[in-house]
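pls design
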């Protein structure tokens, strides 16, 4: 097992355990990530250059996805699915859907400036917020949210920006108090996303 796979496995073990325990509960209204130690405070900069804190989302659910705007395939596919799923939920139940805030947090602070994020997030959902910050701040936020990432070496030595970022592929629904609720199944398409939101958003 290489180092990246090993790190990702360590990060995902608490989530896998939470899902197993959730499945063992049988018929229950308890969220699958109830009691998981992930999430927490942050203050970052959004795509419009404004400072945004986790407390700004108090009282709202939030879908949190970590990625980077230069991602060639995974991030745009996942964000398209999440955005389409949220739009489907909005059509189904506009009042509850209005309580869901989608959030994209960059793990590529060197390239993902507010201007870059502004152009990027508009492709996926009109309410999607893109957040960035210093390398140190983002590393701390990722740690709190149990997200692994590693910035790779440039593919072209002559171009310092020709690198990719290896990161955990995970979207998590957090509740009105910032508590982890469930992993959003973006691998099940927009319908799966909408169904999961319908299940947990009150």
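designed seq:
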């Amino acid at each position: 097992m290489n180092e990246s796979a090993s790190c990702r496995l360590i990060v995902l073990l608490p989530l896998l355990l939470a899902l197993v325990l959730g499945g063992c509960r049988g018929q229950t209204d308890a969220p699958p990530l109830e009691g998981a130690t992930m999430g927490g405070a942050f203050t970052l900069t959004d795509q419009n250059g404004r400072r945004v804190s986790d407390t700004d989302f108090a009282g709202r659910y939030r879908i949190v996805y970590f990625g980077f705007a230069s991602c060639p395939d995974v991030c745009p596919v996942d964000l398209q699915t999440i955005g389409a799923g949220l739009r489907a939920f909005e059509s189904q139940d506009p009042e509850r859907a209005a309580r869901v805030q989608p959030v994209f947090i960059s793990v590529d602070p060197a390239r993902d400036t507010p201007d870059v994020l502004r152009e990027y997030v508009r492709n996926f959902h009109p309410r999607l917020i893109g957040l960035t910050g210093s390398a140190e701040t983002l590393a701390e936020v990722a740690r709190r949210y149990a997200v692994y990432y590693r910035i790779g070496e440039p593919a072209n030595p002559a171009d310092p920006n020709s690198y990719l970022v290896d990161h955990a592929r995970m979207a998590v629904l957090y509740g009105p108090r910032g508590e982890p609720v469930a992993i959003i199944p973006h691998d099940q398409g927009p319908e799966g996303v909408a169904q999961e939101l319908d299940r947990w958003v009150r």
